[in-house]
Amino acid sequence: MTNLLTKVTLDNGLTVHLKEIHTAPIISHWVWYRVGSRDEIPGKTGISHWVEHMQFKGTSRYPSGKLDKAISRDGGFWNAFTFLDWTAFFQTMPANKINLALRLEADRMANCTYAPDEVESERTVILSEREGSENEPLFRLGREVQLNAFSTHGYRSEIIGEVEDLKSITRDALYHHYRSYYQPNNAQVCVAGDFKTAAMLKKISRLYQDVPAGTHPPHPSQPEPALGGEKRVEVKGPGETTFLQIAYRAPAASHPDFFALSVLDSLLSGPSSLNMFGGGGISNKTSRLYQSLVEKELTVGVEGGLSATIDPYLYEITLTVHPEKTPDQVLEAVNREIQILQAQKISEFELQRAIKQARALFAYGNENITNQAFWLGYADMFESYTWFENYVQRLETITPDDVLRVAQTYLTPSNRVVGVYIPVNHKEKTE
Amino acid sequence: MSAARSAHWKTIPGPDDVTRRVLPNGITLLTRSNFNSPSVVVSGYLGAGSLFDPPDKLSLAYFTCQSLMRGNQTHDFQQIYNLLESSGASLGFGASVHTSSFGGRALVEDLPLLLQILSESLRQPVFPTDQVERLRTRLLTSLAMRAQDTGEMASLAFDDIIFANHPYGRPEDGYIETVQNVTRDDIIAFHKNHFGPRGMVLVVVGAISAGAVVDQVMAKLGDWHNPAQSSTPEMPTITPLLQTRRKHISIPEKSQTDLIIGTLGPQRKSPDYLSASLGNSILGQFGMMGRIGDIVRERAGLAYYASTSLNAWISGGSWEVSAGVNPKNLQRAVDLILRELNRFVSKPVSNTELRDNQANFIGRLPLSLESNNGVANALLNLERFQLGLDYYQRYPDLVHAVTPEMVLETAIRHIHPDQLAIVSAGV
C-alpha cells in the first residue's frame, strides 16, 4: 500500500508534514513546538510543561471547558506531551471531523488567554501531578541521577520541574514563554490518515497564513563538559525494595554511534521500542543482563533504554535488586557484563537478532495511524524523518566492531552516574 | 445511513469479515484479517481464573500462569525466550477472576512459532522448581512494591469492602503469606484441573487469511483434550453495603493520597450496562474527565486526575470515582465528589450532555479498532459476553436508544450516596 508523503514550509516558516494513509477513516493531527525542558533556566524549571497545560485553558474563540468537550463530542481523543526537546499536541479524530482539530490548534498557537485564575488553579493541579510522581521511588531516584548527570545543560532537570519553581512561576512568565516559543517558524504541523494531500495542505495554509513568524530565543547550546569521573548518589525513602540506576552519557540521536548503541542496548538489556502509541514491547529474558542478573538471582528485574534527543543524553539501566542481595553485588555483575562487551565482539547472530527485533517493533508501530503521525514530527524534532525511515537499514550497516567500539567509548565508569534507592522500611497502618 | 456512518461501517468488525469457528475440542476461534502491516496479534483466555484460588493460597491462578513459560516438555526457559525474542515476537500470560488469559504478537511469518509456544505452554508445562522459586521472589517483590503504591493499596481495600466474601474482592496476585503458601504441587494440580480446551477462546488478527489461521490453530491445538478439566462453579451472591464505610490506609512519606469512592455496578450483560456506561462518561470521563474532573480538577484545582470508571464483569461490577489529591485536600475532595454523586442521582442528565456522549461513544469506535490489538480486544469482548458478531454494527442504535431518564433510573438503582465505600491511601 502506497502512502503519499509531503513536506512543505509555508511563508511564515511553519513546516507542514503530511502522510496519506487510507486504511481507516481516521486522521491524526499533531502540532510540535521546538521547546522543552532543555530550554529552561534555573528558577523556571517545569515552565514548558506548565505552558502545555495552559494551552488547554482556552482562547476567546474556544473558551476553557469547550475544547475538550468539542473533541470528545466528535469521537476524538487528544492529549499533549512535554519532553526534553519538544512539546507536542495531538488529536486523533474520525476523518470527517478533523476540521475542528485543525482550527483549534491554529487558534491556540497565538490566542491563548492565560487568565490569572486559570493559572492559579493549574498551579495546584501541576503540584498535585508532581506529588503523585514523588510517591514513586523510581521518580525520586531518577531525579537525583539526572541532576547529577549534567552540570549546566537543561537536561539536568525533571520535565515537571522543581517544587519551589512551580510555586513561584508567575502568569506573566508563563505567557512570555508561550509567546516566545509558540510561533509558526518554531513549529511543525503533522497529519497522517485518510485525507487528500492537496486539500489538507490548502486548509492548513489558510488557517495559519495570518499567524506571523516571530523571533524565538535561541535554543541553548550549553556544551556539557565530560562527567570527569563516576558519580554516586543515594536516595533514601519509604519502601522495602532497593533500586539501582546506572546512567551513562550517550550520543545524540543524530550521531552515527546512536545506532551502534541501539544494537548494544538490544542485546545488553533487551530491545527498546521508541513507539509512543501501540506496538508493545518485546521481552528481554535472553538479554545479557537478564541472564547474568535475574537468572543468577541478583536482581528480580532489569530494563534499559536510550532516548532519541537533540543533544547527548543518557543510556539508562534500571535494576530491581533481589531482596537478599546488595546494590554493590549487582553493580559488580553489571560491570562484568560490560567488561565482556568491551573485550569481545558480539556474534553475527546477536547482531542479526537485534535487527529483526527492530524490524518487528517498527511493523507493530505501523498498525496505528496515531503512531505514524507521531513519527512524522518526533523524528524531525531531533533529526529528520529520514532518520525514522532509514532506521532499520542503518542498523543493518552496524558491525560487531562498531558495537565493541561504542561499548569501549561510552560504557566507562567515568562516564556514568550510579544511583541507589535505599528503602527505609515502614509498615502500613489502617484506620 | 449518514456518510460518516458509511465510512465507519467498512472498518467495524462484523459477521462479514470476522470468522468464528468452534473446534471439535471446544476451542472457539475468532479471526479477522488486516494486511496493512506485516504483523499478527494472538489473544485469548480459558476458564482457569483466580475464582479457584483457595483462600490461603490466593495468587495460585496467577502464579500458575506466570509459570507456564518457564519450561515445557519440548523447550526449556532459555529456549522458549530465545525463539520468541530472536523473532521479535512476544507472548505472556495473566490471570483474572474468571479466566487465565494470554496475549502475543509477531511478524506474520512467525505466527506458527507463536502458536507453537502457546500450545506447548498451555499443554506441556513442567514448572521447574528453580524457576518456580525465582518467580516466587519476583511476585513477593512486586507485593512489596504494591504496599508502597497508594493507588494500588486504595484499590485493594476498596474491592475488599464492596466485594466482601466474593472472589471479586480478592487480589489475583494475593498477599505475601498466600504467595508463600503456594507449592509447586499446587501449581501442577491447578494446571491439571483447570487448563483445557473446553471454553477456551482464541483470537487471531493480522496479515493472514482466515483459512490459514484455522489450519494453523488446528495443527497446534486441535488435538488438545483434558478429561480432568473442571467446570466453572457457581459464583456467590454479591451483597451490597447497607451503609457507607470509610477506610484510610496510612503509608508514610507519601506526597499524594489516592482516593476511591464507589459502589457496586451492573454486570456487563445487564440491560443497565449502556445507560450506566453513558452515565459514567458524563459523570467522570467526557472531555476533561466529565463532571467530576470539572469540579475537582478544573474548578477547585485539587487533583491532577479525578475521574470515574465503570467496571462491568460477568457476575457483577463496580462504579468508582478516583482522584489523587494532596493529603490536606482529602476531605474537600470527598465532599465535592459526594455532592456530584448526589446531583447525579437526583436529576436527569441534560439532553445536550447525553447527545454529546452518545456522539462520543459512536465516533470513537473506529479509533479503538485501528490496531490489531484493538480489534482482538473487541472480538474477545464479543465472545466473553456473548454479544453477537454484529454487536458493533448494532452499537450506534443501542447507544442512541438510551434516554436521560434511563441514565437517571440506572444511577438510582446502583448509586446510593449513603451506602458507599470511601477509601484513601497515603500519609
Largest sheet of chain A: 6 strands, mixed
Low-confidence stretches of chain A: none
Question: Which percent band covers the strand fraction of chain B?
Answer: 15-25%
Question: How many beta-strand elements of chain B?
Answer: 11
Strand order of the largest sheet of chain B: 1-2-6-3-5-4
Strand share of the residues of chain A?
15-25%
Question: Could you give the distance between the termini of chain A?
Answer: 61 Å
What is the CATH-assigned architecture of the largest domain in chain A? 2-Layer Sandwich
> CATH topology of the largest domain in chain A, anyone?
Cytochrome Bc1 Complex, Chain A, domain 1
Average pLDDT of chain A, rounded to a whole number, is 92
Bulk shape of chain A: globular
Sheet having the most strands of chain B: 6 strands, mixed
CATH level-1 class of the largest domain in chain A:
Alpha Beta
Structural class of chain A: alpha+beta
Can you tell me about this structure?
The complex is a heterodimer of chains A (431) and B (427). Chain A is α+β, with helices and mostly antiparallel strands and 431 residues long. Chain A contains 16 helices and 12 strands. In chain A, the strands form 2 sheets. Chain A has a 6-stranded mixed beta sheet, with helices on both faces. Chain A has a 5-stranded mixed beta sheet with strand order 7-11-8-10-9, sandwiched between helices. In chain A, helix 1 crosses helix 7, helix 3 packs parallel to helix 8 and helix 9 crosses helix 16. The N and C termini of chain A lie far apart (61 Å). Chain B is built from 16 helices and 11 strands. In chain B, strands 1-2-6-3-5-4 form a 6-stranded mixed beta sheet, with helices on both faces. In chain B, helix 10 packs across helix 13 and helix 11 packs across helix 12. The longest helix of chain B has 18 residues. Chains A and B meet through helix 2, strand 5, helix 4, helix 12 and strand 12 of A and helix 1, helix 3, strand 5, helix 5 and helix 6 of B.
